[in-house]
Structure to design on (240 residues):
């Protein structure tokens, strides 16, 4: 999407923030119509800054910025819906995980409106239900689709044969699903599970677990050996 000098009242979430000077910060925004946008929030660290109370993650915001370079200047930012974060401590790591995927995989200034809506809905639902795993799987699948790494749920990797709900398959992220012989002891994904994941139907617990294995395997492959910070945090919590 071509760069515009002034953008006003754009729906955004703050994905990450870091110091820029003694009084300012750089904010990594995820916006509905402009994708990832980096802005300087001048004076945001001052006690009386108009930005200060709104610079927190997982809060639906409306932002305005200006500038033609990749690093924009924040002009205004304010809360929408309500003046609080959508995520409480129980789901903080899950929400942070989505933020980390956005930072790592999404390009600046490319719009991802569908992914933005799934992200927003996931944050809303985190506080309404303990069943956050289906939302994470939907987000991961949509993110992979948006960045060009979509999982082919339709056909086998080395042929045009349709995935059969009565067969079993192994999965390779760089190729896709491979049909397993009927006498194989490796039964990683059933055709029924694959089709249910394609339809985002996670009503069966085994399908939800299969979806988690599938998306994590794919994301790990495309991270090219990098370990996400949220994974390290989760491992540390489990050890404690």
């Amino acid at each position: 999407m071509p760069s515009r000098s002034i953008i006003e009242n754009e729906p955004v979430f703050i994905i990450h923030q870091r110091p820029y000077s003694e009084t300012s910060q750089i904010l990594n925004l995820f916006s509905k119509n402009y994708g990832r946008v980096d802005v300087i929030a001048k004076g945001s660290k001052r006690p009386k800054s108009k930005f200060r109370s709104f610079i927190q993650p997982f809060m639906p915001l409306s932002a305005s910025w200006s500038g033609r370079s990749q690093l924009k200047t924040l002009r205004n930012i304010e809360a929408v819906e309500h003046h609080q974060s959508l995520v409480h401590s129980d789901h903080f790591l899950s929400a942070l995980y989505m933020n980390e995927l956005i930072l790592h995989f999404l390009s600046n200034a490319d719009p991802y409106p569908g992914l933005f809506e799934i992200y927003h809905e996931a944050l809303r639902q985190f506080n309404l239900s303990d069943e956050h795993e289906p939302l994470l799987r939907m987000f991961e699948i949509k993110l992979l689709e948006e960045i060009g790494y979509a999982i082919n749920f339709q056909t086998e990797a080395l042929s045009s044969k349709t995935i059969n709900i009565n067969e079993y398959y192994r999965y390779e992220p760089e190729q896709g699903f491979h049909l397993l012989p009927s006498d194989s002891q490796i039964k990683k994904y059933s055709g029924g599970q694959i089709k249910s994941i394609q339809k985002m139907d996670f009503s069966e617990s085994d399908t939800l677990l299969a979806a988690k294995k599938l998306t994590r395997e794919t994301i790990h492959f495309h991270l090219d050996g990098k370990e996400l910070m949220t994974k390290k945090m989760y491992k540390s919590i489990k050890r404690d």
Summary: The longest strand covers residues 6-19.
